Every structure is written in C-alpha cells, then in structure tokens.
Amino acid sequence: MRGVVDQRLLALNSFLGARRPFGVPLNLDSIRCVERFDAMFQLERMSRCRQEWPHAGVEIVSFGEPTAIRVAADFPQKNVVICFDGSCLSDLPEIISFYREVNRGFVFTLPYGSLDDDIFDALTQVGMRCGESGHVLAIAPAMSESSLVVRPSPSEEKELYLDLYRRAFSTQRVVTDEQVSFQWLNDSLESAQRFVCEVDGEPAGMGSLNVLEGGAYLSTAGVLPAFRGRGVHRALIAARVNAAFLASCEVAFGGGFLFGPPMMNFARSGFTILPLGATWWLPAARA
C-alpha cells in the first residue's frame, strides 16, 4: 500500500509543472484555493441541511480556522473531515471516537502533497483505508460559446429543473425523493447558479455552479437520454465556465470519476485533469 501511495505522490508532484489552457500557470496557490473552496462549500451546504432537515441529524464541528470540518448526518457520503494541514491529526482519535459512537463511516481528505510516512502510519493504525486521490480540472478563462442555447434557470421553474435532474440520472440509479430534495438544497444555496440547456426549444439538460470567494465549482450536470451525444454537457460546461469568469473567479473546476463521461467531457473542453489531495475513509462498524 505504501509503495502505491508513494508512487501516487511522485505523480502528483509532477503535475505541479503542468500548464492550464490559455497558458495560465497552475501552481500550488491554485490548488490550495480549490481545497479552501471545497471546505467552504461543504460547510455551506451542510449548514443549510442542518437548518432545513433537522431529521437528518447534521452536526458540524470546526477545528481551528478551519483545520477540519466534521459533519455527522444520515447521508454517509456527506460525512466529511477536511484537513488543511497535519495539525488536525492530533484530533483524529476524537474524530474517530465521535463517528464510532454514532456508528457512521466518514471520509478524511488531506491537502495536496501532505501525506508523509508519519501521517500514513497514523491513518492506517486506526483502521482507515486509502481511497483515491481527489481530482479537479484545471481552470480555463472564458470559453467559446456553444451553438446550443444555455440559459439561467430561475427558482420559479424549480419543478422543471428537478424533473430534468431526475430523468437524467434515473437511467444510472434509482433517484429517490430525498435525493431530489437534497439536490435542490444544494442548487438553491446562496452561492449557487442554475442553468438549463435547450435543443430546438426543448429542455435537454441541467447544470449548476457554486461560486464562493473567488472559486467556482461546476457541480451536478445531467443530460436527458434522448439528447446525449449532441454536445449538451459540453455546452453546460462552457456556460458555467463563462459565468465563473464573469464573476471574477480565480479558479473554476469540476470533478467526477476518472475516465467517466463528465471527466472526459471536461478534458474535451480543454481542461487538464489534475489529481488533488488524498482521500481516506473509515467504514461504519458492522452490526
């Protein structure tokens, strides 16, 4: 395991010499900007979840400013601890004890390049497992507009927007009412902007963008099955990047499974795929 991690770190370090499209250098400041954004975004949406869904049992505890953010909820994939430096490892026993008491797993994300032997040993000794490197897509300034129509989606068309989301993702998994509600919670945050792409006047896809303190995240985007392969997702990418550019963002990025359709469309749009940080996870105890 350690050999794999060491090789990954060597590969990550080699990416520091990469260049963004349009000749803008990708540097450590850009990567840290993304990491700060991720922490703020998680805090914003889970704080909203705590307010609007008290039944979800969300608890948020911050260490430092912020060293780590701890979330406990009935959404296992949302239980996250985001670490900005190695100092939060001193809190690791307390964090693990907390999650063991409520019998929930959690995800622990380290900042880029911080995984050394001591941190590796500390994580493995408490039973944490190495997941994968997170990954973001290096930022591009304004992109060429698509010939397809992409327009802002106002809150008044909430039902249309969520219907597009449900229909776009129902071919991959069962989309529950709770997931739809959480998607709207995410896409109606103060930081959020929503978009709908139309083909020949017919709604064909949806996408969202979150903007926080100079960072922009190209969040969920979905395309109806009948319109796939016609450039809808790439049109949504271009529209959201341009919106981030107009908002004077320092960094705009998206994510997804490596080699999955969203990531491939980001790459086709001229973005650079960049591994970021290191993600570890601790499963809930078996009954």
Main β-sheet description: 5 strands, mixed
Largest sheet, spatial ordering of strands: 7-8-9-10-11
Structural class: alpha+beta
Q: Helix-strand pattern, N to C?
A: HHEEEHEHEEEHHEEEHEHEE
Instruction: Quote the distance from N terminus to C terminus.
Output: 27 Å
Mean pLDDT over the residues: 76
Described by the principal axes of the CA atoms, the overall outline is globular
Total helical segments: 8
Unreliable spans are 1-24
How large is the share of residues in beta strands?
15-25%
Rg to the nearest angstrom?
19 Å
Query: Considering DSSP H and I runs of 4 or more, what fraction of the residues is helical?
Result: 25-40%
In total, the number of domains comes to 2
How many strands in all?
13
Structure description:
- The chain is of the alpha+beta class.
- The protein has two domains: 2-137 and 276-282, no CATH class; 149-271, 3-Layer(aba) Sandwich (Aminopeptidase), CATH 3.40.630.
- It has helices at residues 2-15, 28-52, 92-102, 117-125, 158-169, 177-187, 232-246, 261-268; strands at 59-63, 68-72, 80-82, 106-110, 129-130, 134-137, 149-152, 192-199, 202-212, 215-223, 251-254, 273-276, 278-282.
- The chain is globular and about 55 Å long.
